[in-house]
Write a structure and sequence with these properties.
There is one protein chain. The protein is of the alpha/beta class. 48% of the residues lie in helices and 11% in strands. It is built from 24 helices and 15 strands. The two termini are 27 Å apart. 46% of the residues are buried. Bound molecules: phosphoenolpyruvate and magnesium ion (MG). Magnesium ion binds next to helix 19. The site of magnesium ion has 5 residues, from helix 19.
């Protein structure tokens, strides 16, 4: 049988794998409602406590197996899962249900899990929403203890060399362990492009396809499957010729990757001598070494949301500073663009929710810079830390989700007051610290001149710009067929922003996913962009295109494109611009 899913999240790692399917079905235990005798309540509570203890021991054992240099803080995530075993909202609430409703521990846990997941699902921030999986994983652990199964099967040390793991879902720790055991690809039924499995697969360069509904039912254990991380297809029942084709592709991709790696430190300059700054996007400080290995000339987007995740308190100034210095000092000498908080946080999200009727759209609500301006005690420690980090190396500050000049002026006033404060306290910072804003909503692109006049740089965030221009939720699978970053409307807004940069002498960068897609590098160069920031794994592919491009030719090709944008398929126009060049 053959099945495929759309490419969202799948192209996280543009690689391909062929191997036997290892079906890892751990269908969540579905408890049935059932009363227990009132005199059995105490024993049921003790049973739950025993299961919690067992789950704690199992997770600690997993934690010890996590290799020290992992691309993500997996150990921290497992610690978080261990902490969740004591979580009031999960465990105490389940205890209360057992007491009040005289139900089984399994049933109480399942009800509480569903209640918490509903809260996470309602969150607008994709990262926070993906935290629902943590609740799921922790409950699964406890339930497997309640059933007396001990650790789930995948932790039993089985050698998975050469196998393609097909699972309902994978916890980050599972993904690491499976990778260590030799798994060559992951396919999951759940999870989006922001899921940890996808992020991990991207940093490990393991092909992964997520969101393949019912994959564990459709594929058979042991049958040969192809996981095509470039298209998001998972294929089975292939004839020998097709299989041979995929084996050849894998071989070619491996050779290409090795060859590209040897070019990591070649300059990023076009054929006609124009330097193009290729920068890295960092999700976590631990991404910095990959950025360096792939020759990043700077960090164009250091997302700081990780500082607020998996915790109930807020990070303080010193914690911010330590996270920034880890990157600034680790990448000594290259500019690091630190983006201020881009989400609604813990209780702020709850507070916002309380004022927001159920029908309101959180993507249009109190988020990112809007939230920061309303909650200065949330924002000030971050601003102070970014400024203080600038005393240790080249730092740039970038503000997300700007929608108007008035809002920007509010931010600039706050930054000015933080500067005065630091000066008064005798704390060092770079007085010339560049301040930039992201162009992520149509209003910012349409008012880009006014914004550019007040800022040192702008960076186009195409992920959100596409979402807001086309009214397509970037996380919603059901409308992903409409999500098109090269839609004429999006391209026109990009063009407006670049024009505003040229008119005001303000550098314009791009840091959305579009910037790291080598198919569009020539389009972006031809439109006038000279700084592109992307996930570190894309740097070498994009640089190869830069080095093979004559920008003066591209500029004239692109000039003719805008007249035909509405009449011709954008994909065809891009092919014309690429002039027969087919990046892998
Ligand atoms: C964007 O919106 O393009 C962007 C880079 O920001 P994020 O993906 O973090 O929203
Ligand atoms: Mg964004």
């Amino acid at each position: 049988m053959t099945m495929s899913c759309h490419g969202l999240g799948v192209s996280a790692s543009r690689s391909v794998a062929v191997g036997p399917a290892f079906i890892m079905s751990r269908r969540a235990y579905s408890a049935t409602p059932g009363a227990i005798a009132p005199e059995a309540i105490a024993a049921e509570l003790a049973r739950l406590d025993g299961a919690l203890e067992g789950a704690r021991a199992a997770l600690r054992a997993v934690r010890q197996q996590v290799p020290v240099p992992t691309p993500l803080s997996i150990a921290d995530l497992i610690d978080t899962h261990i902490l969740m075993l004591d979580d009031v909202a999960l465990v105490d609430a389940a205890r209360e249900l057992i007491r009040q409703e005289a139900c089984s521990a399994e049933w109480a846990l399942e009800r509480q899990r569903d209640a918490l997941i509903r809260v996470f699902d309602a969150m607008e921030d994709p990262y926070l929403r993906s935290r629902r999986h943590d609740v799921d994983h922790v409950v699964l652990q406890i339930q497997s203890q309640l059933r007396g199964e001990g650790q789930p099967d995948l932790l039993d040390g089985q050698d998975l060399s050469g196998w393609v793991v097909i699972a309902e879902d994978l916890a980050p720790a599972d993904a690491i362990l499976l990778g260590q055991r030799g798994a060559i690809a992951f396919v999951t039924e759940h999870g989006g492009p922001m899921s940890h499995t996808a992020i991990l697969a991207r940093s490990l360069n393991i092909p992964a396809v997520v969101g393949v509904h019912r994959a564990t039912d459709y594929f058979r254990h042991g049958e040969t499957v192809v996981v095509d991380g470039t298209t998001g297809a998972v294929l089975a029942d292939l004839d020998p010729a097709t299989l041979a084709h995929y084996h050849e592709r894998i071989h070619a991709l491996e050779e290409r990757r090795a060859a590209l790696q040897r070019t990591a430190h070649r300059p990023s300059v076009s054929l006609d001598g124009i330097p193009i700054a290729l920068h890295a996007n960092l999700e976590l400080p631990t991404d910095a070494p990959v950025a360096r290995a792939n020759g990043a000339a700077g960090v164009g987007l250091y997302r700081t949301e990780f500082l607020y995740m998996n915790r109930t308190d807020l990070p303080d100034e010193e914690e911010h500073l330590a996270a920034y210095l880890e990157v600034v000092e680790g990448l000594a000498g290259i500019p690091v663009t630190i983006r201020t908080l881009d989400l609604g946080v813990d209780k702020q999200v709850d507070t916002v929710g309380a004022h927001c009727p159920p029908a309101c759209n959180p993507a249009l609500g109190l988020r990112a810079i809007r939230l920061c301006l309303q909650e200065p005690e949330l924002f000030r420690p971050q601003l102070r830390a970014i400024l203080r980090a600038s005393a240790f190396g080249p730092v740039r500050l970038m503000v997300p989700m700007i929608t108007s000049v008035a809002e920007l002026e509010g931010v600039l006033a706050l930054i000015a007051s933080v500067r005065h404060e630091l000066t008064a306290e005798g704390l060092a910072f770079d007085a010339a610290l560049p301040i930039g804003g992201m162009v992520e909503v149509p209003s910012a692109a349409l008012c880009a001149r006014a914004l550019a006049r007040r800022l040192d740089f702008l960076s186009i965030g195409t992920n959100d710009l596409t979402q807001y221009t086309l009214a397509v939720d970037r996380m919603d699978d059901s409308v992903s067929y409409l999500y098109d970053p090269i839609h004429p409307a999006v391209l026109r807004l990009i063009r407006l922003t670049i024009d505003a940069g040229q008119a005001t002498g303000t550098p314009i960068a791009m840091c959305g996913e579009l910037a790291g897609d080598a198919r569009y590098t020539r389009l972006l160069l031809g439109m006038g962009l000279r700084e592109l920031s992307m996930q570190p794994g894309a740097l070498l592919d994009v640089k190869e295109i830069v080095r093979q491009s004559d920008i003066s030719v591209l500029e004239s090709r692109v000039a003719g494109l805008f007249d035909r944008l509405d009449e011709t398929d954008a994909g065809r126009l891009v092919e014309e611009i690429n002039g027969g060049l087919h990046p892998a």
